[in-house]
C-alpha cells in the first residue's frame, strides 16, 4: 500500500471488524463486503482514476454527482446531477451535491483555497456505490458513497462532516501530504475530523460553544440517539453499546494506542490515535472562543500547509505554536491557547522558551470559565514578558558586536 496515496474512508476498520461479530447475518455480511471493498479499492486506486478520466482535470471546482445504481464499476455510473443541472428526485444525489458545494465554498471563502488542490479541481461524487456498503471513500480524485446497511449505518451522504472529512484528505494530500501510518497518519485523520467539523459549524454558523464536536452522528447507528463515530470534545466517549462495544480512542499521550503498521493494525492506529490531536484542537478552539473556523481553524490550516509528510504529533504541535505567533503575535491569547490545548493532551510545545511554565491542567467543560481565563491570561503575560526579555538581549548582543568591530 502506498504511504502517501491511500484510499481514505470515514469508518475505522475496528468498527467494521466488530460488526462482523454481530448476531444479524445481514449486518455481518455488509461489514465483510465493506472490508473487502476497501481492500480492493486500495489496490485499484490508480486504475479507478484512469477509468473515470475526470479526477485530475481542472474544472473550476465544478460538481458532478454520478449514480452507480449499486454497481462498483464506476465506468457504468451515469450523471445524476451537474453544476448547471436541476435537482434530482433522488435525495442522496442532492445531499451529496450540496455537501460537496458547502465544503468547496468553505475552503474558498474562509481560507481562499480554490477547490481541493487549490487549482480548481473538479468535485465528483458517486452515490449508491455497491450494495449496502458501510463507508464513504476518498480515492484521490472523487468521493464514493455507500448506502449503509440500514441498521448500523444509514446512507453515507447524510452527514456533512463526513463529506468535509473525506474531501479534507484531498486537501492534506495537496499540502503536507502526511504519510498514512503511525503518528503522521493519525494527524492525517485528525485534520480531516477538524475541518469536517468546521465545515459543519460554518454551515450552521455555530460558535465553538454551540457545536457538538461529533463526527458522523447523522449516519452512525440511526436507531441509537446521541452517539457518533468520534467525539473531538471527549475522545473515547462517542459510543458505548452492546452492538460495537466502547469507543477506543485515547484522549492523551499516556493512553496512546500502539498497533502494528499494517492494514489490520489500522496502519499503526491512525483512527485510534487521531483522538489525541482532535482533543488538542478542541481545547485550543475553546480557549480562543468564537467561531472555530476563524482563529483556531486558520492557524491549524496554516500549520497543515507548512508541515512535512513524516511529521509527528510533536512536530505539528510546535508548528501550530509557530503559526499562532506568526498570525496573531508572540504572546497573543491565541498562542497561549495553543500551548494550553496541547498541554491538555500531555504534549509540551518545544517552541516555548524553557523559562516559561506550562499552564495548569484544567477540565474542558465546553464553556470556558474563570479558571481557564486565569490560566490563559497568566500564560499570555509570561510569553509577552519573556519575548520582551529576548528582544532586549538581542539588542544588547547587537550593540556588543558593533563595539567589538571598532
Short description:
By secondary structure, this protein is an alpha+beta fold. The protein has helices at 13-19, 25-52, 91-111, 160-173, 182-204, 266-273, 275-288, 295-306, 313-328, 333-344, 370-404, and strands at 8-9, 63-67, 78-82, 123-127, 136-138, 142-145, 214-215, 230-231, 240-241, 245-246. The longest helix is centred in the C-terminal third of the chain and has 35 residues, at 370-404.
Describe the structure.
Extracellular zinc metalloprotease. It holds the Pfam family Peptidase_M4. It is an enzyme of class 3 (hydrolase). The chain is an alpha+beta fold. The chain has 2 domains: 174 residues, Elastase, domain 1, CATH 3.10.170; 227 residues, Neutral Protease Domain 2 (Neutral Protease, domain 2, Orthogonal Bundle), CATH 1.10.390. The chain is 47% helix and 8% strand. The chain contains 11 helices and 10 strands. It has a 6-stranded mixed beta sheet with strand order 1-5-6-4-2-3, covered by helices on one side. Strand 9 and strand 10 form a beta hairpin. Helix 4 crosses helix 5 and helix 9 packs antiparallel against helix 10. The longest helix has 35 residues. The radius of gyration is 22 Å and the shape is globular.
Amino acid at each position: 500500500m502506498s504511504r502517501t496515496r491511500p484510499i481514505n474512508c470515514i469508518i475505522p476498520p475496528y468498527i467494521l471488524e466488530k460488526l462482523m461479530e454481530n448476531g444479524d447475518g445481514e449486518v455481518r455480511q455488509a461489514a465483510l463486503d465493506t472490508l473487502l471493498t476497501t481492500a480492493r479499492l486500495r489496490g485499484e486506486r490508480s486504475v479507478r482514476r484512469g477509468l473515470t478520466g475526470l479526477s485530475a482535470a481542472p474544472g473550476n471546482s465544478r460538481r458532478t454527482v454520478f449514480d452507480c445504481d449499486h454497481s462498483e464499476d464506476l465506468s457504468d455510473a451515469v450523471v445524476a446531477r451537474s453544476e448547471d443541472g436541476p435537482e434530482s428526485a433522488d435525495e442522496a444525489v442532492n445531499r451529496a451535491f450540496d455537501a460537496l458545494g458547502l465544503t468547496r465554498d468553505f475552503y474558498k471563502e474562509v481560507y481562499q483555497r480554490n477547490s481541493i488542490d487549490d487549482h480548481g479541481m473538479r468535485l465528483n461524487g458517486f452515490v449508491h456505490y455497491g450494495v449496502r456498503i458501510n463507508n464513504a471513500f476518498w480515492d484521490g480524485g472523487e468521493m464514493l458513497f455507500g448506502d449503509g446497511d440500514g441498521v448500523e449505518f444509514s446512507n453515507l451522504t447524510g452527514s456533512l462532516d463526513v463529506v468535509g472529512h473525506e474531501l479534507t484528505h484531498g486537501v492534506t494530500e495537496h499540502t503536507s501530504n502526511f504519510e498514512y501510518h503511525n503518528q503522521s497518519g493519525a494527524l492525517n485523520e485528525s485534520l480531516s475530523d477538524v475541518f469536517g467539523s468546521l465545515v459543519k459549524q460554518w454551515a450552521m454558523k455555530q460558535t465553538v460553544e454551540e457545536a457538538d464536536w461529533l463526527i458522523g452522528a447523522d449516519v452512525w447507528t440511526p436507531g441509537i440517539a446521541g452517539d457518533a463515530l468520534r467525539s473531538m470534545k471527549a475522545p473515547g466517549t462517542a459510543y458505548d453499546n452492546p452492538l460495537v462495544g466502547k469507543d477506543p480512542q485515547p484522549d492523551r499521550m499516556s493512553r496512546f494506542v500502539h498497533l502494528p503498521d499494517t492494514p489490520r493494525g489500522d496502519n499503526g492506529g491512525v483512527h485510534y490515535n487521531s483522538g489525541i490531536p482532535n482533543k488538542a484542537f478542541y481545547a485550543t478552539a475553546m480557549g480562543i472562543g468564537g467561531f472555530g473556523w476563524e482563529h483556531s481553524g486558520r492557524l491549524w490550516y496554516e500549520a497543515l500547509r507548512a508541515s512535512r509528510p513524516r511529521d509527528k504529533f510533536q512536530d505539528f504541535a510546535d508548528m501550530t505554536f509557530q503559526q499562532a505567533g506568526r498570525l496573531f503575535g508572540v504572546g497573543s491569547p491565541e498562542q497561549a491557547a495553543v500551548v494550553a490545548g496541547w498541554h491538555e493532551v500531555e504534549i509540551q510545545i518545544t517552541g516555548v522558551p524553557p523559562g516559561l511554565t506550562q499552564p495548569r491542567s484544567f477540565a474542558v467543560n465546553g464553556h470556558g470559565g474563570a479558571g481557564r481565563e486565569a490560566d490563559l491570561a497568566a500564560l499570555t503575560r509570561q510569553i509577552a514578558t519573556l519575548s520582551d526579555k529576548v528582544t532586549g538581549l538581542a539588542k544588547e548582543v547587537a550593540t556588543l558586536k558593533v563595539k567589538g568591530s571598532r
